[in-house]
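ok so for the tutorial part 2 we go from a plain amino acid sequence to predicted structure tokens. step 1 is just haveing the sequence, like this:
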Amino acid sequence: MPTQDLDSARAARSTGAVDWRIRLARLISFGGAAAMTAAATHQMIKAVAVGEITGLQAVLVILFSVTFGWIALAATTALAGLLPGTRPKTAAASDFGMTCLAMPVYNEDAAATTAALLTMGKDLASLGQAARFEIFILSDTTDPDAWVRETAAVARLRSLLAGTIAVWYRHRAENLDRKSGNLREFVERWGARYDALVVLDADSLMAGETLVALRDRLAADEQAGLIQTVPSLIEGATVFARMQQFAGAVAGPVVANGLAAWQGEDGNYWGHNAIIRTRAFAEACGLPHLKGRRPFGGTIMSHDFVEAALMRRAGWKVVMAPDLGGSWERPPPSLTDTAIRDRRWTQGNLQHLAVIGAKRLAWPSRMHFAMGVMSYIASPLWLLLIGVGLTLVTQASILRPKYFTEAFQLFPTWPRFDSERMLWIFGLTMLALFLPKIIGLIRQVVSLCAQASWRQLLLIFPSWALEIVLSGLMAPILMLIQSRHVWDILRGRDSGWAPQRRDAGSLSFLDALANHTGHTLFGLVVFIAMLFISPKVAAWLSPILAGWLLAVPISWASGDPRIGHWIKRTGLFTTTDESNPPEPLIKARDARISARADLDGISLETLLGDAIGADQHFTLSGEGKRHIPGTPDISLLTSAAKITEATSRAEALGWFNTAERMALLRDRNLFDRLASLTAAEPPDNTGSQLPQVRKSPVSI
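step 2 — the prediction. this is what the tokens look like for a chain of 700 residues:
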């Protein structure tokens, strides 16, 4: 898997004729967005050009043009999704080799990950396909208790799938290059065993039929390098998660169909729920380190976009399969969890500014990079747009205008706006913003009528309206959060690598208060200022101001599973996968409950008293850290010294830090030394056993 050079490329990208439907979709998406933006910008110029355009008004027009173009592209992409799609090649993969279900994990819930893999393995077995697939768990886990549960879960998974499908496990002692490095090491060491990889996230689930269909499509087209499915969101327990789940079910397919329509063979990769030809990945996707220091330099964080672009550059097709169902993932449970995830994604997407100019990339690949960057730059641009608008309002209300800007000017310069045109622009903006949701709603209504799902049909309208209201309130909060992320990255702050929270644990009100006090104060300052300067503008800004002022209760309530459960009972935000769940979802849920019951309470402490569990762990633990002469493993040495000085396991473990616990779990001899100690310290009964000594004065 050679490291790729972004400044040169040997292999030429394939230059086959582009299908007319793809050309038409590109014309609708990009030509339509350009035409809408040009029309809206022209009207904006006319609206501010009642008099001579001032400098601030010119900035307002530029910012409006860029931000309107961004939402216009989403609208025209949704329109392109109405075009009939191309039929993918498919054939029975009789001579195709093994396919690997590869799941990289990092401090994850082992019960949930192995339950999903168990469900997929059994589903493949029911189709008679288990012999053509294998499971490989690629662990980068750094938390000792999570690692102990992980190896126990893998041993359990192997036992349950014994004789059905092979389950492999590898744990890396050194997490070089994060997820991309994890997959690269796997490909270099074991990739030749497999013709294809299905890359899964820790919360991924795919139906057996979908896995087989992906394999068959890849086998049918020798030029196909990657096929990306469109995962549906499932199992949302909070209001925030259920809202995302519903929005994804309504508008998601519309946008996905549009993306697939204009991408054609120049598609993108989202890092999971996709099948990859191993040879193509090895040949084209060895990622280099970016020049410079973090956060822009170093390991490429959003590696998936880059891997798709490099694979396409090497001549392999990268396509999307929006017609395939049976692909699922779970949404983040709260606004706070989304913010944590977005911090890493913001940095990863801004890094793409160093990749977008790489040699011989297909122009749609460059467009994917640009769209990824814009998805996060849009927030500070919207914030600047609002700031410039408020500055113009303040200038008109407080400062005395300078009507004669030149010495011999005959007529005054009036800083005015055409209110009628501004209302027209507002209407066009709302149409562009809501068009994907409107098309999605119509599509869902038609589908529910065909299924005679009358109760869900009645509930879809209030659900649709409530989703718009809630997302409208959360959008200003996310705008401030993402703007802060961009600012932090520009200041040189790295995001690190924190594990994601995927469950629906409740967010305390105090946490919400700590996270959003700044947003509330910001909104309060703007609100008070606008009340004094222009109450009419304050009324126009009320949706944005409401989001800022109510940031704390909105974040807390939207992330509370109790409120989410109440919303679920009302039937709001119900999706088809929820009202009529496919069999894999039911089986995965049952398998997860069973796995959690079996793995409950397992930890390093319990492993010390479990000889069978210890044998299983060290059988799976694999290689330790590479030993470099002259650089001893300090954690190993200090943990050994602490065991020597300890009188019990509890005392030694009380002295251990995280690195020392991980060292202990990699070294069987050290582990056995600790296990040989008594479990707890003996009781301190010295006072009752020793005779009392009467103290007497001491003569000096």
